[in-house]
């Protein structure tokens, strides 16, 4: 490692910001509305202080765990994120490769700019993230395609009935360039895909696309249909209210992701970490609980698990790595998080992930 | 919408500030004393975080509700605000027109610069806000005039026994220009109206007018008299203590507005949102509960309703719109809030206003 | 009032700061140590939000009350403050005159730069503040002198066993000028008075004087001796722990002042307002409870009383007025506070001081 | 004392910073990760407000206490800190001399740059801090050496299984100069000592050394072995979780140091002061409780003891004094803390350390 190597995700973010055109940086880093929830995600994580354990006889901690029944080298998966070729020509191939190298699952978005089949070829454990599209048959096709490609789980994102009001994108009249497309939606469908490429002043083209393409009114019966339709593990991404978590478990969901979509959907939604304890308590083990939104360090992973989560998803940091340096950049982010988490486990006296979940936390004041 | 269109109430406020002479901006935007309560209104709203619901099958949420028994397109009314011709020659006509177009009630102030009869002609659902004036017979006349004009409710403002110490106005020696008058008070009365137009250095002329014109010592018996006098729905505006809310309900009041007058009266009064839950609990449904003071976004409306309110009043934002661009400006503010609230409902999985009131909230740290 | 008249105590403070040499400003405005408690006094007051009452039929509130059995036009006394001729040649004569005009008690310090006899001549209700000096017989003499002069109460300050570490004074090598002396201590005593006039680099001469002159090891038996010695009402100034309040009441004390000496003694002591509720509860009416430290506005008086106090003492603001403009300046401060408190009572629907004490408070977030 | 003499530890820190090369300042002042815990240590101490007592008859407080059965002039020991010759040629000799002069114990680090035998010659009460090294026999040798040298206690530091991620050191490629060595580890051992002197870009050489030299996987059985091995009092340094405190007491430990290593190990660990009350409660007197991390003033010592601790360790401030002016500088820091603590005791009405522990505290808002 040389003097200029990034030592933290914050370093990587700075490199990415320096490299990206403003409108791309804004698209990735931004949140919705007044970005209250975006900021609250960090503030609430910073307030979780951990009580480390000592003399636990931990020579080398094992950060490995099982996520949805498969081994993962960390209690972490790469969050589904759309259109990654915006940030680097290799797009999802690069990030999936990094996930594969890191030994963690990669979640491929419905709106990926590289197909799930190509992603799977990287060798990464792949989960398919499902947006429920309006066009008849498309959801069923996507499920089949994910199954056929060898995905090991379906992640149904339920917090995007419409896109959040992302004002940076609106002010930038953000639009996808012609060469970055939703790779799973090119085969016809309902012809809405072009919306994401049509620049209209004072409008976010991707919000317009979402409005046109996503099915309105998704309900529990859709989830039940899907539960019947596939035998893959099902993850419900984007819940915060424990009542929804319990209902999801009742529908046979295997895991929930406590998430506010990284502060990109409802501005004013609770920080994910604040919702975790009550979701964990309400579920009482009926389904696994993952958290995302704001994870930036190994300590954050410790905080999440000590608060009761079984694992985390990491979003923007991976894209920062991708933007900074393609697959090696994304890999650097994952290895930083791995190093940091391993160090944090060691320093907290935790031999394994189960021990991390036994740590006590106190809410502390931010300085 | 073009690149420069305002996307938030904050954008509109900036446009208004750029357009208004400082003393008018100060008059509208300012609060009393050290502006502690003014700032606390925002801070307290920002701390209310919501737990959205998912998979609720909400294709298109219905933000409509009934306010005092009449349909409203939103759980929102335009707050009573005096002398709107200060901000635009069309004054209350413009804002009432905007309210009418938005399908929400408009509350016309006793101190309006346009008469209630003219306001009613815009077609807006009109409520008349009553200040209790000293001059004998004036209150009774105003009530009769409001009834005759076709107002659908009376809003009795009880937090202005005297005007709050609005230091910006005092420092500006604020005075009404000759051509902006209290349109309901021109017909003689006690001759105090001219006080608002008499510049005295180091004095707020409108505070002097209020002191001269408003009846001191308003009591519950006055409210009882009014309850007997009119069959219109009665709203008590400006309460924060649950004991007052319960007493008001006992007097036959139909609704209370939990309000600190936008931080313009008692500096040091609690932020309205902090008082809502105990007022709602104490009333137990005996009267409707509205909130004002600090509502700036659709998320704020969600916060207020999730905290137990039945609706909100919006004040300054409408004046910012009026100052920026007359009726279209005021309309833009109301349509922004409507869009934002509809989006917030969708993102929170709420099919209707009743569902919003079932949302859970957590108090979160501000970033 | 003209445009430049001060409208708040903060305005007066600015005038004073502009007029005073830095070392005098520092002496008055400063606190001890890192000034944590000085700042916390304000922060904690700002967090107390009040729930005003409405329709209470208050035509003109009566801010009058009884303090130690005598009528006062406000629930406020001027706090004892040493050496006021530092700030203006008229010193305590000016501030006492202002107190007399305002109809509130004036507390004359043991270390006053004008004698108690002269102060009493102003006509002000005068209380004598007692520091327990080492020199034999001096305390007894001071008590007799206060009684003879016509003082109506004795205020025993118990939070100055030594002077707090006031670093501004130390850095300024602060010393009293020759013409400002402790007027009650000139008649010989133990010859320590000159210490306050002896400049030593890197030392606060007044701290040196205090160390030399004040009796160490003051105890409850001293208070019992004093209780037997005088029939004047006794006030214990400078308590924060409810256990001390209860013990004081057991010794026959008539009132306690919950105080941290305006943040000038123990840095890290609790803000006074935070200690009031438990002191009030513990005393259960056995003694009156006054508060000082940080009162700057009429709303602050409301906050203190709504938190349970019977009255407040006001310190620095009176000195700011004195420095800015002698007796009229001090008078302006008191009339500002009176106006602000009367307005706050009116706006909070309180007919009298008893009603203020019935107000509810909520702890709110600072913006 | 002259005008420029430092009056607070903060003053001394500024002098040190001015004198030290940046990389040395960073090494001493810095923390791990985002320095969240480093900052939280101060923030949490600042929030502890004390309720002083009055009329306690305290002529001159006695800050003396017993630490591990021996008399100490203050409830304070100098924390173990490695390589003090980095800051001044006299290194640990100077700080031990200062401790001796102040009458407080000095803890000599395993990684001291001066040997324990030389330290003991200063006459200071010396405790030996033990890091558990990998090399066979070294721990046993160090224990014997400490016993033989006349150390009065062993302090086993348990929060450094690996070094925290101290990013400043990494960015500075921090390395020990050739003439500053771990004086106890020169006699051969496992040859890892040279690692601390080998500059590698983008690496902290001292972290590399620690990784190579420290025994991984320290467990409770090691502690039991040590308890059997020595009859010296045993202190466990670096615990935060009450469960570990109780277990340590069960192993016969005489005291625990509630510590996060001054924010240098697990970033995100709780501030020490936040953990003290529950550790004290859980131990119920079975072992003494000391606190370190963030103590900078006499008031901080008061805060720690009022929160239940029996004493504190002070780290960086002593090094700031050493860097600023050798033994006299370190002495100035200790005498400042002594003066401040004595004043704080006096101002809080505490005759002795036991009385300090009876003070009440309230959590207050920071300004
Ligand atoms: C640029 C970007 C694109 C995203 N696209 C998707 C997506 O297609 N599907 C999805 O479920 N979530 C998407 N998310 C949300 C992430 O899966 C995840 O919830 C969020 O980024 C977590 O917060 P973090 O970025 O603070 O780690 C996206 C997030 C970002 C930043
Ligand atoms: C310029 C201005 C004039 C107002 N005039 C009146 C009035 O005449 N009658 C009344 O009841 N409230 C009046 N109010 C208070 C509003 O009705 C409302 O309570 C307040 O503005 C709500 O806070 P917000 O502005 O933060 O939304 C006025 C407020 C403003 C800003
Ligand atoms: C310049 C100055 C001198 C003071 N002298 C005395 C004194 O002689 N005796 C005393 O009991 N308190 C003294 N005090 C403390 C005040 O009585 C009072 O407790 C404090 O000023 C209240 O805080 P405030 O200044 O924030 O209102 C003094 C305060 C100041 C600012
Ligand atoms: C430069 C430095 C070196 C340290 N070396 C050691 C050490 O060798 N052994 C140890 O147990 N603690 C060591 N510590 C931690 C201190 O003993 C103590 O826990 C910490 O400094 C307390 O926090 P404070 O510096 O805020 O007072 C070191 C701390 C510093 C700042």
Automatic annotation (TrEMBL), chains A, B, C, D:
Q: Which InterPro entries match?
A: Aldolase_TIM, Alpha-hydoxy_acid_DH_FMN, FMN-dep_DH, FMN_HAD, FMN_hydac_DH_AS
Q: Catalytic center at which residues?
A: 261 (proton acceptor)
Signal peptide extent: none
Q: At which positions is FMN bound? A: 80-82, 109, 129, 157, 237, 259, 292-296, 315-316
Return the protein name: 4-hydroxymandelate oxidase
What Pfam families does UniProt report for this protein, alphabetically?
FMN_dh
Q: Where is the FMN hydroxy acid dehydrogenase domain?
A: 1-366
Q: Which metal ions or organic cofactors does this protein require, according to UniProt? A: FMN
* Protein family: Belongs to the FMN-dependent alpha-hydroxy acid dehydrogenase family.
**Oxidoreductase listed as a keyword:** yes
Q: Which organism is it from?
A: Actinophytocola algeriensis
EC numbers on record: 1.1.3.46
Q: Where glyoxylate is bound, by residue?
A: 27, 131, 166, 261, 264
Q: Molecular function (GO) terms listed?
A: FMN binding; oxidoreductase activity, acting on CH-OH group of donors
């Amino acid at each position: 490692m040389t003097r200029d190597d990034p030592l933290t995700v914050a370093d990587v973010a700075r490199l990415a910001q320096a490299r990206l055109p403003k409108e791309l940086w804004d698209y990735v880093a931004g949140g919705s509305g007044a970005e209250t929830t975006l900021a609250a995600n960090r503030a609430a994580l910073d307030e979780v202080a951990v009580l480390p354990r000592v003399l636990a006889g931990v020579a080398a901690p094992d950060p490995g765990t099982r996520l949805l029944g498969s081994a993962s080298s960390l209690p972490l998966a790469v969050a589904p994120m759309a259109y990654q070729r915006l940030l680097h020509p290799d797009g999802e191939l690069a990030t999936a490769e990094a996930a594969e190298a890191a030994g963690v699952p990669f979640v491929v978005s419905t709106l990926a700019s590289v197909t799930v089949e190509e992603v799977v070829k990287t060798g990464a454990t792949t989960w398919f993230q499902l947006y429920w599209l309006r066009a008849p048959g498309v959801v069923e096709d996507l499920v089949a395609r994910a199954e056929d490609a060898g995905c090991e789980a379906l992640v149904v994102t339920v917090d995007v009935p419409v896109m959040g009001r992302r004002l940076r994108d609106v002010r930038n009249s953000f639009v996808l360039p012609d060469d970055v497309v939703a790779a799973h939606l090119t085969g016809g469908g309902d012809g809405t895909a072009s919306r994401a490429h049509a620049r209209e002043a004072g409008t976010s083209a991707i919000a317009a696309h979402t409005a046109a393409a996503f099915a309105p009114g998704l309900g529990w019966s859709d989830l039940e249909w899907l539960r019947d339709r596939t035998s893959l593990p099902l993850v419900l991404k984007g819940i915060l209210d424990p009542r929804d978590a319990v209902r999801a478990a009742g529908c046979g969901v295997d895991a929930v992701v406590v998430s506010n979509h990284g502060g990109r959907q409802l501005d004013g939604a609770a920080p994910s970490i604040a919702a975790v304890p009550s979701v964990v308590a309400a579920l009482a083990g009926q389904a696994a609980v993952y958290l995302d939104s704001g994870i930036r360090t190994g300590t954050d992973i410790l905080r999440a698990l000590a608060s009761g989560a079984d694992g985390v998803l990491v979003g923007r940091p991976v894209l920062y790595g991708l933007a900074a340096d393609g697959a090696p950049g994304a890999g650097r982010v994952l290895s930083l998080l791995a190093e940091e988490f391993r160090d944090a486990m060691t320093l907290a006296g935790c031999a394994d992930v189960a021990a991390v979940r036994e740590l006590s936390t106190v809410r502390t004041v931010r300085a």
